Predict the 3D structure of the following.
Amino acid sequence: MDNLFDQLHILNAVLEYDRSNTARYHMPGHKGGSGIPLHLWNSLLKIDVTEIPDMDNLYHPRGFLADAMNECTKIFGTINTFFLVNGSTAGIHAALEVAAGDQKEVIMSRDCHKAVYNKVIMAGYTPYYIPVGFDQNTLTPSLPSVGDVMKVMDRTGCKTVIITSPNYHGMVCDVQGIACEVHKRDGILIVDEAHGAHFTFSDALPETAIRCGADMVIQSAHKTLPVINQGAYLHICSRRIALEQINVALSMIQTSSPSYIIMALLEYAAVHLHECGDILYNKLCEDIKKLQDGCNSECDIHIKTDLCKNAVEKDVTRILLDARRAGYTGFELEKRLRSQYNLAVEAADLYSCILIATVSDPSWYLETLSKALKDNANPVGNKRLVGCKELPVPEMVLLPAEAVRQDKKTIEAEKAIGCIAYKAVIPYPPGIPLIVPGEKITTEAISYIHSIVDEGGFIEGLEGVNGNLYMDVVK
Ligand SMILES: Cc1ncc(COP(=O)(O)O)c(C=O)c1O
């Protein structure tokens, strides 16, 4: 038996990571099970059942699943909260399906997650983009303003709007102002709040879009709550949305074998944090603020506290380490934290590292982070970083859905200038597409790609072979 276990690649790789005792400043929010109480932990596989008659049915809930979702509806203060077992991705697809209906068009902020872009491709929508810029002060992407949304609605007449708030960097936009203008124009506002499932549970956190007038809000519980991967909520917050249509869409999009483990944890997280979230988040936010004040006066690696352009609030639990003053790139800092302090960040970009702190974090995580910052009190690196230029949204020559149905060829990135993109090119983080299928590839986009790759950044949609970069374009 031992021998058999030795051969199992996944089990060994992940258990080795677990044994390394790394401070996990990344998702999922339960942090290696630290946030899951023993009673649940011991029952996890016993509760993995299926929809036999006694066990209710996610898409026709009449028994305990209906009770659990009703309880969450009350906790979140929504009209209806649906449990998602295929991540926010499923909720985004269902919300767009119902909101856009036969209209086949959508207004979306350019910083939407690829789940939104994928729906645009699958449904053949025409996308109208709300551009997002780059904030030179915080060195993070900026957010859409109320005026930006109004402009695109008035220009296009499109009534379905989807925005992301908070973004990956924890910055929250003026959802209330945006919702007000969308509704004046008889539109529907969907907010992808994938990174803000915890907002409901404490006044120390930003206001959730649920309370700011959005019609539908989607949250990845697994990112910040004690829930395993794929657990998420779709909240219906206004009477403009037909509940039965959402249920039908979810039953088509999601698996027909929903995980009871995920559903049990979705209920647990909401009930538990409704009871003690205030105390837990107040403590977490206070601890982070103390660390912030200490290191921002003593150390060269700062925790960013400023708001980016058009942000109205920032989530304190999304820790943004600004390495610039210490002379590092975010990528270098990430490696340093991993190799010297056994601390794994959620993501790094050229300018910062993004860390996700949750109420499941053992106390030694923050001690490890504090030590790492204090040890790096003096400048060590020699990088002099300047903020990147803002790139305009490229010209759309074909709809994304049309582009992916063409024949493609793979060519060197330099030779792709002027061609039409076949595949999306997305730097991670922040996961904002630089180029979407159907868009014309520009010289500026290619030089931007090089500036990221040369510093060790990752870009989805590119292939590196022998030091050259290749990309897929329409033939
Ligand atoms: C802003 C945003 N929206 C949606 C998603 C998709 O969420 P999920 O992984 O829960 O499907 C992500 C995932 O990273 C995200 O960052």
